[in-house]
């Protein structure tokens, strides 16, 4: 069968509008399409391919586990899941792990746990969930309602109740919302989809203190920031505060679908047998690949390398901007970076993405005004330089019309 972009229109639900490019193979941070055109990958499947494409450690784990056992129901457990859970708890604040298949499912579990904890410990009036405008927490109906972009949750009927939002980094607004009826606060420690927005130290410290004051659980959505993306294993570890619940996915499996919610024993005990579950969560094939990814990323050399690569990309973007004057700033942390378009190019992020693809660079957007970059954490330096050279050509195309 000949596979073309037109086949998508024939057989797929039209909730996506993919590029004409159909990649067929990848190696490291380079990808080739059906026509054997090469691309430098600065997108990483939206912060998923943390070790690039076909990393030998992940390929080896997949092959080895693929010849052992693929799937078990949660009537039984399995070795890869327990090994991965032990490594995650050893490396973080958490005592307990719940495995899912995606970030949305991990967030769904976190929100359900928070509500159940509040009901059991504080009573039925403590139900409010606070989240932040421009936040993104997944596409289940619960998580998309908690996410701070109403356009994603409108049009599907009545929404889950007792969910309120305020602006990120606005501590005063947050303080007016939170009360003893708040059961949980869900936030990204660096907003990704919302435009690569970093928190202030005062905001983070204030949110944690107000959660403590009102006995509300603090949930960190680290689906995009986790597993080395910001230069720490998890972003909270460099913020000076600790959440009560943390969710992780995307880079956790290095491209293989897996998500997880981690928390303390005290909180976890409220998800008793039968209160929540997942058919595929904790799948041995997924956990084996994720264990290999986790082991590879959670080293001093890789995490230090993220910060080195961040500086190279920042320097390159600043040099491009000095010549073409298209960005107002470059923001973000580690290898979650956003080039914010200035007033002359406002709203044209997609134009830069399209031009980048033309010149052999895979990039992303975060809204209409930010060009986003989330490459492999171990992208070779020469690929960074080549990718920036291709991006400069894309910028020149947009600027020169």
Unreliable parts: none
Q: How much of the polypeptide forms β-strand, as a percent range?
A: 15-25%
Radius of gyration: 21 Å
Secondary-structure element order, as H and E?
Answer: HEEEHHHEHEHEHEHEEEHHHEEHEEEH
Count of β-strands: 15
Shape: globular
What kind of sheet is the major sheet?
7 strands, mixed
Kindly report how far apart the N and C termini lie. Answer: 39 Å
Mean pLDDT reading: 97
Strand order, main sheet: write it out: 4-10-9-8-7-5-6
> What fraction, in percent, of the residue positions are helical?
25-40%
With helices defined by DSSP (H or I, 4 residues minimum), what is the helix count?
13
Derived from helix and strand composition plus strand pairing, the structural class reads alpha/beta
Question: Can you characterise this structure?
Answer:
With 401 residues, this protein is of the alpha/beta class. 38% of the residues lie in helices and 17% in strands. It has 13 helices and 15 strands. The strands form three sheets. Strands 4-10-9-8-7-5-6 form a seven-stranded mixed sheet, with helices on both faces. A hairpin with a 4-residue loop joins strand 14 and strand 15. Helix 3 runs antiparallel to helix 10 (284-297).
SSE blueprint:
Elements: H1 5-11, E1 23-27, E2 30-33, E3 38-41, H2 44-47, H3 56-66, H4 79-91, E4 96-100, H5 103-122, E5 128-132, H6 141-146, E6 163-166, H7 171-177, E7 182-187, H8 201-213, E8 217-221, E9 245-248, E10 259-263, H9 265-268, H10 284-297, H11 300-324, E11 327-333, E12 336-341, H12 349-358, E13 361-362, E14 364-365, E15 370-373, H13 381-399
Parallel strand pairs: 3-13, 5-6, 5-7, 7-8, 8-9
Antiparallel strand pairs: 1-2, 2-3, 4-10, 9-10, 11-12, 12-15, 14-15
Helix pairs in contact: 3-10, 4-10, 11-13, 12-13
């Amino acid at each position: 069968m000949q596979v073309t972009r037109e086949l998508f229109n024939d057989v797929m639900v039209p909730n996506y509008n993919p590029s004409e490019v159909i990649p067929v193979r990848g190696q490291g941070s380079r990808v080739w399409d059906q026509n054997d055109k090469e691309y430098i990958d600065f997108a990483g499947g939206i912060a998923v391919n943390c070790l690039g494409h076909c990393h030998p450690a992940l390929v080896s784990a997949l092959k080895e586990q693929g010849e052992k056992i693929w799937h078990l129901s949660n009537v039984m457990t399995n070795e890869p899941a327990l090994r991965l859970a032990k490594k995650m708890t050893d490396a973080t604040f958490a005592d307990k792990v719940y495995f899912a298949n995606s970030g949305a499912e991990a967030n769904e579990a976190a929100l359900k746990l928070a509500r159940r904890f509040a009901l059991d410990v504080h009573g039925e009036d403590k139900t409010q969930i606070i989240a932040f405008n421009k936040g993104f927490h997944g596409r289940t109906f619960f998580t998309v309602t908690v996410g701070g972009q109403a356009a994603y949750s409108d049009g599907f009927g009545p929404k889950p109740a007792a969910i309120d939002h305020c602006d990120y980094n606005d501590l005063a607004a947050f303080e007016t919302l939170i009360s003893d009826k708040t059961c949980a606060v869900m936030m990204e420690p660096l907003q990704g989809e919302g435009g690569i927005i970093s928190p202030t130290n005062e905001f983070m410290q204030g949110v944690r203190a107000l959660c403590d004051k009102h006995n509300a659980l603090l949930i960190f959505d680290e689906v995009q920031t986790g597993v080395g993306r910001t230069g720490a294993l998890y972003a909270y570890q460099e913020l000076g505060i600790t959440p009560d619940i943390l969710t992780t996915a995307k880079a956790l499996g290095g491209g293989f679908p897996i998500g997880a919610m981690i928390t303390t024993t005290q909180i976890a005990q409220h998800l008793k047998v039968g209160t929540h579950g997942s058919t595929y969560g904790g799948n041995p094939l997924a956990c084996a690949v994720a264990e290999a990814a986790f082991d590879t990323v959670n080293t001093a050399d890789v995490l230090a390398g993220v910060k080195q690569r961040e500086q190279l990309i920042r320097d390159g973007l600043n040099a491009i901007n000095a010549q073409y004057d298209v960005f107002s700033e470059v923001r973000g942390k580690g290898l979650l970076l956003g080039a914010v378009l200035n007033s002359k190019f406002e709203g044209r992020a997609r134009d830069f993405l399209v031009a980048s693809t033309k010149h052999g660079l895979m990039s992303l957007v975060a809204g209409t005004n930010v060009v986003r970059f989330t490459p492999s954490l171990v992208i070779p330096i020469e690929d960074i330089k080549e990718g920036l050279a291709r991006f400069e050509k894309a910028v020149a195309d947009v600027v020169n019309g």
